[in-house]
Known about the structure:
Largest sheet: 4 strands, antiparallel
Amino acid sequence: MSKLNKIKKGFTLIELLVVIAIIGILATLVLVALGGARTRARDARRSSNMNQIALAMEMYYDEDQKYLDTSSVPTSIGTYMVSVPKDLLTDNNYAWSNNTGAGPNGEAGLQWYCISAELEEDVNGDNNLDNDYFRCDSNGCRETTNVCPSSTAESL
């Protein structure tokens, strides 16, 4: 039997390597695209957490006519939020300003609060990820370039 009469069965090594290379390239492209989506999803979750914390603080204020007083991030906010969420990526607490004294704009004690989270995405378009935050305080929630003040000398 000559070589010409044999029926070709299966794939050659080159064909298999080409297919594996194409699958690898496609998988890399998909993972890169999903990485950005994961970052945006974590930022959306941070924003949602901050809004929920702000809502709990406002409900607490409605009941007690003052905000929860604490010098560090609260672990709970009355019965409105039994467990205050932490950052998804680092599992650290969000940034919190000590609100046991007078506010940064001269507010009476316990009439203000400020909590913020650092975002992973560039939200203000300056191509600098070092100053992108989502912040909630007694004036509402927003994306900003300012973290909560660390002292009462800084303004909200």
